[in-house]
């Protein structure tokens, strides 16, 4: 019941943009105390936020709205649109243009990442920084040391999976980007979600 109530609160905030406790109480038909309990949990999970709005009379009103993390719970169709656009570009301009697009994306990310990764002293620190940057883009990464000279990085999520599944050049570009950012040619993609594996796994060697 609690989970359903919190989902209902998120739905209401998505539709109404912002609501006060009184308004939520009226819509949910539960007590103020119950509403506040759910709001506390949602705030703790960083799914909602609150601001004080001054009133002509009385105390300021606490208004609740979705955070960016809360917004991400609602379905987006970006990936399928991206795939459709890439198909159209391929049909209109050919395979070479697709290659150019992915090359451009690879260079842009490489330049962005290098600024932060090149400051690190050794391979271990560079890979950890790379993983942090990938995490910021939603890849759910994990880094483990394999032996004295090698490390593995696992990506449990692929935010561009639909694109990569159709245009596998995306995977090759990612591997090349890792090599350029970290500064080693010895980066091997051991597992890949587009090949049917559960996740993507890379091994970096000095």
Automatic annotation (TrEMBL):
Q: Which UniProt keywords apply?
A: DNA-binding, Transcription, Transcription regulation
| Keyword DNA-binding set for record | yes
Which Gene3D superfamilies has this protein been placed in? Winged helix-like DNA-binding domain superfamily/Winged helix DNA-binding domain (1.10.10.10)
Q: Does the keyword RNA-binding apply?
A: no
Please report the stretch or stretches of sequence annotated as the HTH deoR-type domain: 7-48
Which PANTHER family has this protein been placed in? SLL0088 PROTEIN, TRANSCRIPTIONAL REGULATORY PROTEIN
Q: What is this protein called?
A: Metalloregulator ArsR/SmtB family transcription factor
């Amino acid at each position: 019941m609690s989970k359903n109530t919190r989902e209902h609160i998120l739905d209401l905030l998505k539709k109404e943009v912002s609501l006060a406790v009184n308004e939520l109480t009226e819509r949910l038909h539960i007590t103020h105390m119950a509403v506040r309990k759910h709001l506390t949990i949602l705030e703790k999970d960083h799914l909602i936020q609150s601001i004080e709005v001054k009133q002509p009379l009385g105390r300021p009103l606490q208004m609740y709205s979705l955070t960016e993390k809360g917004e991400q719970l609602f379905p987006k169709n970006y990936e399928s649109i991206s795939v459709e656009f890439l198909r159209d570009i391929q049909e209109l301009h050919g395979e070479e243009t697709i290659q150019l697009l992915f090359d451009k994306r690879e260079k842009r990310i490489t330049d962005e990442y290098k600024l932060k990764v090149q400051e690190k002293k050794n391979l271990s620190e560079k890979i950890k920084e790379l993983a942090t940057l990938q995490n910021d883009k939603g890849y759910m990464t994990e880094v483990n040391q394999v032996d004295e000279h090698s490390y593995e990085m696992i990506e449990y999520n692929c935010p561009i999976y639909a694109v990569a599944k159709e245009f596998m050049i995306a995977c090759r570009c990612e591997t090349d980007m890792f090599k350029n950012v970290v500064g080693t040619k010895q980066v091997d993609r051991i597992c890949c979600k587009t090949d049917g594996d559960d996740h993507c796994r890379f091994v970096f060697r000095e």
